[in-house]
Amino acid sequence: xKVLSIAILLLFAAFSLPAQHAxxxxxxxxxxxxxxxxxxxxxxxxFAILAAGLGFLMAKYAKPFFASRSRAIVQGLTEAAALRAQxxxxxxxxxxxxxxLDADVESLRGDARAEAAAEGERMRRDAERDLAKIxxxxxxxxxxxxxxxxxxxxxxxxxxxxxxxxQKVAARMTPDGQDQLVRAFAGNLRRENS
Length: 194
What we know:
By secondary structure, the chain is mostly helical. It has 4 helices and no strands. It has helices at 2-23, 26-31, 35-172, 175-193. Helix 1 runs antiparallel to helix 3. The longest helix has 138 residues, at 35-172.
């Protein structure tokens, strides 16, 4: 702000002197000798004042301004280079991850296949064990049922044999049949004793 006010002041001073001289008009020029030459001198004097003022301002403020601007540009370039290096490092890391991702996916697929095969094998063994238990239970039940059926058949056969024997005995219970029965029994006893 200070620099701007000094520059405006110098410009005002530079343009005010010729304007005052021009305001005096042509009559003033005739009284003075070399009026045109005075005008050129004033213009050069104004120019010299303006140039000296601008030179002073530039010497005083331009060097620090350009130095700070230069530092800011260098700092910006340094930061941009660091950001670029970080971005490139991230890009390399991402590329490595993507390449590794294919291997990881294939590894996961292999693990899933192995787990599925192991699970299938375990399920097959469990099914075989359960089937063996069911078969053993069925065989025991069949054997038990067969034993019960054989026993029932034996009991039924014995009952039928007894009935048949009763019928035969009843048929032989005639007086002649009783004599024959006693003789046959006695004959059997003798044979067994001999």
